[in-house]
Give the backbone structure.
Amino acid sequence: MENCIRMNNKMLAFITIDFPVLLLGLNFILYNAVGIEDYKNILRVIAFIFLLIGGFIRKKSITLLQLFSVLIIGIELLFQGTFALNILAAFLFAWCTTNNFKELSLRIFKVDLLLIIIVFILLATGLLDFKTYISGVRLRGTLGFINPNAGALFFTNLVYLFILSREDISLWQIILSIIYSSVIYSITDSRTVFISACIFLLAIPLFKFSLFSYAFALFSKSIIIILWVGSAISILFINSFIGFDELLSFRISYFIELMNRADLINYLWGGTNFDNLTVDNFYYTLIFHYGIIFYCFMFYLVNRAINFCIKNRIFVVLDFLLSVCMMGLMESSFIRPELIFALLVWKIIFDPECLKALKTGA
């Protein structure tokens, strides 16, 4: 009987966690490596169905805050159309999956390993091209993806998932992860992804072994708050930074173009005026695509998750949030559910209670 129950639990986890996450990860490969976007929303919807099945089977209850999240997301769907499926996927994953964060991290880690093997097979068979090109004075490899940053993000997924899925994090695991990240950086020259990964890895000993871990946690919270509040305020004087445009790969010009296209409705609820404009900044993407109301709601949820981590001394997760928020200054891709390590970010933000079973000080 126990073996039967265990088998049923494994099958449930595969159908309602592994399979939809695999679909989302394959989706990332399809449109960011193969260049096929025709099935993007179809695969998302199929993943949603299996996530919802898991939520109903687990008899997940829904809180008033989650109901409010559904309301906000529903409004976003009216203004955004299919673009709002990003946030819908994040919410469904957070609500429908298991509350065991460590188990969830391990399952996604295994799915990510499978996805990496698939990409290596596609590269070995020539179905994906390992391209390199010169950007200024930088030689950059794409690792089979449409651009180096997409390749770096895809392969660096593994670092975050590997560390978050460990029961106890050792020094050799941190060193191994740094070496792996350095190899990815040496190929792609993706500075933001590499620096963010290093922040995550090098901060772990500060949290784990330092006498000042709690003070460092409060410092990390301050940095995250500054990033969120500062990014929103910077809209008012973004023109002042035009001198750094080339250094920042012309991101300032794109930010200014965002503001030129925006109207009052865009500022409040976002819009689709920016669909053909790529902006490598998570905060500006959130503001202009989803609106300042949604942005403030997300900031509230992020602050709630940070406080939960500090109160319960779950420092490795706080470190993870710090790294991702730092990455957000130069990357916006983790708003997409197909970058599967980002699913854990949204799980933490929407459902910090899932962290309760983690070791304190971890």
